Every structure is written in C-alpha cells, then in structure tokens.
Amino acid sequence: MDMECEAHRERHGDRQIFDIYFGFIHTYALLFADEIRFFDLLADGALTLDEIAARTSLSIRSVQTLASLCASQGLLEQRDGRYAPTPLARGFLTGGSDTSFNGVLASARRQEEAFSYGFFKASMAGGQSQLFGGTDLFDNNAQDPEHCEVFTRAMHSKSRGPAQAWVRQIDLSGHDCLLDVGGGSGAHAISALERWPALQAVVFDLPQVCGIADAFIEQYRMTERARTCNGDIWTSDYPTADVHLYSDIFHDWPLDKCLFLAKKSFDALPRGGRIILHEMLFNPEKTGPRNVAAYNANMLLWTQGQQLSESEARVLLETAGFAGVEIFQTQYGDWSLATAVKS
To answer: Quick one: signal sequence residues (predicted)?
Structure first.
C-alpha cells in the first residue's frame, strides 16, 4: 500500500466505504417506512417504541431497528424516549405535505426488480434499461394505464418542490403562454401560474397522461388558465406558446433526440420566445454532484437518456439556434435551469 493510501486510511478509517456499502439498507428502510405509513403515524404526536410496535404490529426489535435507521438519516428525533418526524421528514415523507415523496416511493415498490443487484448488473452490462422487457418506459406507459397513473403521480410527488423553486429564479411576467412539454401532472405549469397571475399554460403529453393532468389542474383551481393538449413530442405539432418548458425531459433521451426537441421548439416559438430546461446538471468533468451521478445511473436503469452537463446543455441550445443562453442553479437541491431565447 502506498504512503498516500496509508495516510488516508489512518486519517479517515473505513467510514466512507461503509456509508457507500450500507446505502441500500437505508433505501429499503425508507421504502418500508413509507409503506407502513411510519411518518404519518408519528406526525400527530411522538410515540414510544412500545406504542409504535402496538400500532404497527411490528416486533420491538424491528421497530427499534427502523427507528434507529430513520433517526441516523435525520428523519426522526427522539426526546424522552419518544420519536417524532423531523422537519425534513414532515416536508417530504408525510402524506399531507405538498412536496411529499410518497408517490415516488410507491412507484419504486411497484418496480421492485429495479432495486435488485441482478437488474442493475444486467442493465449496466447491456448498456440500457432491462425494465418492462426491454420496452421503452414511455411506450410502456402508453400501453399500461395503471402504471402510467402510478408513474405520473410519482413524478408529481417529486416535482412540486423543485417547481415552486425555479419559478422564483426567472421572470416570465412578459410572456403570455407556457407550454409544459411532456408535462405529466402539470406540476410545473401549475407553479408557474401561481407565480405569474397573467400567464396561461398548456400541458402537452400523451392522452392518458393528460387525463391525469386535468384532475390536478382542477384540484389546484387552474381550469380557467390551464388546459391539456394530447400529442406526441416526436410527431405532433406543438400548440401556440411563447415559452417552452422541458422539466426532466431531456435527461430521458440521447443527445440527438434532445437536439431534435430543441430545434422543434426553436421552429415553433415566436421571435422573443424562450426555452427553459429544468434538470439536474453534472459538473464539467461529470464527476458529481453525487446525486446527479446517481440520477444519471437511474436514467440508464429506466430510460434511454442521461444527465447533461452545463456545457452539453449550452451546446444543445446554441446548436438549435437559440441565443443568450443562461445556466444557473435554482437554489433547491441539485436543480438547475438552462434558458435561452429565439432572437
């Protein structure tokens, strides 16, 4: 062992390796806690381990194990022998929160195989997703209404918080209509409407997705300012709008297809129209951030795409013909905006 490795080992020990190795246990704990509504159970009042066991029918040993895992991740706090959710857990893991990840976790449990080592190994070895028998995720959604609804609600579940953040980082007050391309539930369009009272919005997606988005538009009382439009991003004309938003869309597709979409928007937008990409972007070397690298792997496991770097996003927009490219972080997690105009 060389001197540098020896010094690192002596200084830091093996904690970081254990952090990586035990990552899957924390994932499983999160999935299980959500399935038994663990954080909802504790949200109404702190409980002892005995009280939790009685209400969940779990053994004391299991309850202690789960509570320790959740507390170690900053999801539970313990005072005088009673456990309660931390603000982090209340904000993202309780059903009543507008930014709850419950939908994401429910979707993950439905695709258990995607969390197995065998699936990861097969996808990495083949260089593409092995989910749905090799059928593309979005083709599968078109054929499977039940999974389409679970997936769309999962995306809404994880999108509401980032959507509320990016709308505070850019000014769309001078625009008339936002087209949310592949907009799913309409979470981003709805947040934009909440931010800019004069704006209109169209959620553009497959017919079965638009039916779900219609329900969310009604739920958020935006029926007078938002509508859905059925279509295929590859073959259908876009409805008229002067802002095109792609949130977590470019990362689903190879770079040549991303360029196709960018050019399609350039051709469809009026002069002065704006394109917005909302994505988690890699650093220039593609060595991080850590969650972006994991999200990139997740794209290999689920889709045809990858996370972009800032330079890749810039090149795509400029090659499509856009000018004045700006790229900046939204100050929410690892999310960024890349935006440009048709001059």
So the answer is: none
Q: Could you tell me the CATH number of the domain that includes residue 335?
A: 3.40.50.150
Phi, psi of 266 (to 5 degrees): -60, -45
Cα 138 to Cα 102, 144, 205, 214, 227: the distances in Å are 21, 10, 11, 19, 22
- For residues 228 and 217, is the Cβ–Cβ distance under 8 A? yes
Give pTM, 2 decimals: 0.93
Residue 178's φ and ψ, nearest 5 degrees, are -105, 130
Place of tokens 């990586």: 20
Q: Which of 37, 70, 92 is the last residue in one of the domains?
A: 92
From 73, 92, 111, give the residue that closes a domain.
Answer: 92
Considering the domain architecture, whether residues 283 and 199 belong to the same structural domain is answered as yes
Distance CA 19, CA 295 (A): 18
Number of domains composing the chain? 2
> Where is 69: in which H helix or E strand?
helix 60-72
The H or E element that residue 188 is part of is: helix 187-195
Reduce the DSSP state of residue 238 to 3 states and report it: coil
Regarding whether 311 and 163 lie in a shared domain, the answer is yes
307 has pLDDT over 80? yes
Residues 265 and 183 in one domain: yes
- Enter the DSSP assignment of 206: -
Q: How far apart are CA 158 and CA 46, in angstroms?
A: 26
Domain enclosing residue 36, as ranges: 3-92
Can you state the angle between helices 102-110 and 23-35, rounded to 10 degrees?
A: 110
Q: Is residue 11 part of a domain?
A: yes
Q: For residue range 129-167, list pLDDT tens digits in order.
A: 988 877 788 888 888 888 899 889 989 989 999 999 999
How much of the chain, in percent, has pLDDT values that exceed 70?
Answer: 100
Q: How distant, in Å, are the alpha carbons of 105, 176, 179, 302, 315 from that of 339?
A: 31, 17, 14, 26, 12
